[in-house]
């Protein structure tokens, strides 16, 4: 028992020491819809920086996915001093990556179509875009809550994404998580997220969950068009009606 107490104390000290070497960057609260796809591996590999490889999950609801699209409708964004910043609205494109011969692994951001004030962003990859978001909820005679979402973003260079999804709302689970998210443009850079959210797993080919009624994605332009050429497969959909996080940067 005494050994357990000592070990627990050491772990707490190590955790506190690690966090003391981090710098608070800001915080935000938003609504998200996260889509995970399986697309042509060769096309995704072109997005991966040198020294990194695709690291698709081998288990879990997004098993086999190699490309992610996170749709963000930010409610509030604050800097480290608590001052408000322009909220991000957009579609952020990611892939699961791993550094060769290293323990470094996590989500890697490679592009994004976002509101102009948020580009190019901390990851240096966001493109300013004009967008429209339409999200509606209704209850049918059977008592099911039906969610309709339309997300449309277009940049001045002709790259665009148009997503339509309708699904039946389930019972979300409440989660806490910590994650490192990397930049494909500068792969040694990452941010640390400590977050709480509600997650409604709407679709998962791995687990057999599927409450999606309608789905379509149209992508135009040289950046996104080749990835969504009709051969893509929608692996998972996660609705996150509440997502709150604090962002930290590692101290150098």
Task: Provide structural commentary.
The structure is a single chain. The protein has 252 residues and is mainly β. It has a single domain (26-250), classed as Acetoacetate decarboxylase-like (Beta Barrel), CATH 2.40.400. The protein contains three helices and 14 strands. The protein has helices at residues 2-20, 41-45, 221-224, and strands at residues 22-38, 52-54, 67-79, 84-85, 89-99, 105-114, 126-139, 145-155, 160-168, 173-183, 190-204, 209-210, 212-220, 233-250. Strands 1-3-5-6-10-11-14 form a seven-stranded mixed β-barrel. β8 and β9 form a beta hairpin. 31% of the residues are buried.
Features:
mainly beta; Acetoacetate decarboxylase-like; disordered N terminus
Using the 3D structure, state the CATH architecture: Beta Barrel
How large is the share of residues in beta strands? over 45%
Helix content: 10-25%
- Return the string of H and E elements: HEHEEEEEEEEEEEEHE
Measured on Cα atoms, how large is the radius of gyration? Answer: 19 Å
Number of helices: 3
Q: Compute the number of structural domains.
A: 1
Sheet with most strands: strand arrangement: 1-3-5-6-10-11-14
CATH class: Mainly Beta
The number of E-state strands comes to 14
Alpha-carbon distance between the two ends: 38 Å
What name is given to the CATH topology?
Acetoacetate decarboxylase-like
The assigned structural class equals mainly beta
The description of the largest β-sheet is: 7 strands, mixed, barrel
Can you tell me the overall shape? globular
Arithmetic mean of pLDDT:
92
Low-confidence stretches: 3-18
């Amino acid at each position: 028992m005494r050994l357990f107490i000592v070990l627990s104390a050491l772990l707490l000290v190590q955790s506190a020491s690690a966090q003391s070497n981090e710098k608070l960057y800001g915080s935000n609260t938003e609504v998200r819809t996260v889509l995970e796809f399986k697309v042509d591996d060769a096309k995704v590999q072109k997005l991966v920086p040198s020294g990194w490889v695709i690291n698709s999950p081998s288990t879990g609801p997004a098993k086999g996915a190699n490309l992610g699209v996170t749709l963000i409708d930010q409610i509030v964004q604050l800097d480290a001093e608590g001052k408000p910043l322009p909220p991000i609205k957009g579609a952020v494109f990611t892939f699961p990556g791993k550094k060769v011969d290293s323990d470094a692994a996590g989500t890697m951001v490679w592009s994004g179509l976002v509101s102009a004030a948020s580009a190019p962003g901390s990851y240096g990859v966001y493109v300013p875009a004009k967008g429209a978001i339409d999200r509606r909820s209704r209850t049918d005679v059977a008592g099911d809550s039906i969610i309709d979402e339309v997300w449309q973003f277009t940049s001045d260079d002709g790259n665009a994404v148009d997503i339509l999804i309708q699904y039946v709302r389930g019972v979300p689970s409440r989660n806490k998580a910590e994650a490192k998210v990397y930049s494909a443009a500068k792969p040694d850079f990452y941010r640390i997220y400590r977050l709480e959210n509600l997650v409604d797993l709407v679709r998962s080919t791995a687990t057999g969950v599927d409450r999606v009624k309608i789905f379509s994605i149209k992508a135009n332009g040289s950046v996104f068009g080749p990835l969504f050429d009709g051969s893509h497969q929608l692996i998972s959909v996660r609705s996150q009606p509440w997502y709150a996080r604090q962002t930290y940067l590692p101290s150098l």
